[in-house]
Amino acid sequence: MSRPLHRGVSGMQISGSSNDFWDSQVQVQTDKEDLDRNRSSNQSYLSLRFPLRLHFLDNSPSKYGVTENGFASDPFSVGTPRSRHKLTMLFLKLSLVVIVILALTGSFWWTVLISTSTRAHILHGYRRLQEQLVSDLWDVGELSLGPSRLKEIEFCPEESENYVPCFNVSENLALGYSGGNEYDRLCGHGSRQSCLVLPPVNYKIPLRWPTGRDVIWVANVKITGQEVFSSGSLTKRMMMLEEEQISFRSASLMFDGVEDYSHQIAEMIGLRNESNFIQAGVRTMLDVGCGYGSFGAHLFSKQLLTMCIANYESSGSQVQLTLERGLPAMIGSFNSKQLPYPSLSFDMLHCARCGIDWDKKDGIFLIEVDRVLKPGGYFVWTSPLTNVQSFLRNKEKQKRWNFVRDFVESLCWELMSQQDETVVWKKTSKKSCYNSRKADSGPSICSKGQDVESPYYRPLQNCIGGTHSRRWVPIEERATWPSRSNLNKNKLALYGLHSEELNEDTANYKTAVWNYWSLLSPLIFSDHPKRPGDEDPSPPYNMLRNVLDMNAHYGGLNAALLEAGKSVWVMNVVPTSGPNYLPLILDRGYVGVLHDWCESFPTYPRTYDMVHADGLLSLESSQHERCSMLDLFTEIDRLLRPEGWVIIRDTAPLIELARPLTTRLKWDARVIEIESNSNGRLLICQKPFFKRQAS
Hints:
By secondary structure, the chain is α/β, with parallel strands linked by helices. Among the domains are: 253-447 and 454-471, 3-Layer(aba) Sandwich (Rossmann fold); 483-687, Vaccinia Virus protein VP39 (Rossmann fold, 3-Layer(aba) Sandwich), CATH 3.40.50. 34% of the residues lie in helices and 15% in strands. The strands form three sheets. Strands 6-5-4-7-8-10-9 form a seven-stranded mixed sheet. Helix 1 (21-49) packs antiparallel against helix 2, helix 4 runs parallel beside helix 21 and helix 16 (499-519) packs across helix 17. The chain is globular, with a radius of gyration of 34 Å. The two termini are 45 Å apart. Mean pLDDT is 80; it is low at 1-81, 116-124, 134-148 and 250-255. It is an enzyme of class 2 (transferase). It is found in: Endomembrane system; Membrane.
């Protein structure tokens, strides 16, 4: 968005008579002084915003150079009476020599100044001209290709309303996958969609947090009445409030008992109640097979952050309903591959009748639990298999229980407590425990080559991981939340960072969030776009809930949103194509995942209120176009809820390349300059609410 540059040069007229000569000289001198003052003030302003144009202004006619009409402005060209004294002529000639010498000296020093102090401005301006040329050529190309190039993308058929690429159970079964492997994530070349997913016929915008945590619209998710009334497990219980809504009674003792359940877990660890989890070093939890997120919904009020993972389900999905409630969740499986989280990521792992047979495959699932748990972290398992009275009457159950108990002991886990159907173990805080085990007792320790800190869907390993990490710090020795999010100099050194880098990132995102929030209004799409600082009321603090940061860097957006008091949670995604700071993000007390953005994200359509991408286009464009920008934007559209927001921050040329794609996606969009970065632009978009017609 270029700004017009206004500038003017005063004209100068030389008198034709000797009587007007001195008056003319006084007037010319006054005009020149005014011009100099104007030029000085213009230069001080333009040096801040138009460094290149400042250089162009300095190429204007010199004080003693040539006028606009091309003739010399030497006052001595005017004729004088022959009766003048020779002494006066000599004096004037000497004055002219002095003026010429001063002019040449000034020109020399001005040339030196240009070649040194403003060289950076000239080069920067030259680069901006190149980028503008690229942008103009792109626009010309778009126009030359005509309407076919900007043709809007068609809508997907109705059966794609809840389609998740890379998860096709029926196709996997046809390919011979079985034994749970049919639920694995398999991304092939044909897994991407080239159409826009429409919401269901009766879809409604979700209720704002915290109301939306307890009440959702039944038409927004794919679930049958049979699945509603058969959801009898502890974390799945719910009831129909009306025909159009589902109400979750997670806070009611009469219905769910989640509060009693979480209180029981706290006591088994040795705490007074669940409010003391923070003091015990617990902040982040991985909830496997989370039901519909009631456990995490209750703990959220205690400043605990629970990430739900569950298998892909075509109907009655735990992940889809949990996200619809405004709680963290993603599709994930223990079947055959490691989870896309770094080693030593979570303070607690919870499984309440999660459907995983921990005794199968020689305990390899428990090894994966051990890998993602921080030293001193807790594993909570609730299952009929752990009930003493139950397995005493069933030899098969007793055998399975004995295997799990003995295996986790070989992992150096300590049995904290066992009550009813719930058992709690604590992972060792000391690496020396592994060397003190009996020979051939339990799995071996992974070698450095095997112990990959941040695996990306690697096959499950049968060795103990995380022991080679410099991040091996027991949870009881870590700072408690919220101090955990502000790492000191020594802690940052573990991730190869300096405190100045994190402080700068934090400060930048504080400013960015303030600007973003003031722009999240339909006013930006009017003829007079809203700007930060306008007097219009800002959007409510709870207008957003689920936020996806596609290139999270150090987690700065997450930190800034929380500090600003916004009622959001952020899925911090670290692209596989860039620097990996996901361990840092998780150690700060946030949730996140590693992901390749040339593949579809493991979640259902319409799950995020806002998608943010800072520098992602630059990052992906440097990877030799493994996938197109249109592929990326189509995936964003799938993830975004109707009336959801997209904020893309990148270089001006890339934003100009992206802008035509928003037309094809039917988004409302506007490009906004970044005052602090002349080469940066914001692309602010909103996805319209298109409704499918009832058939």
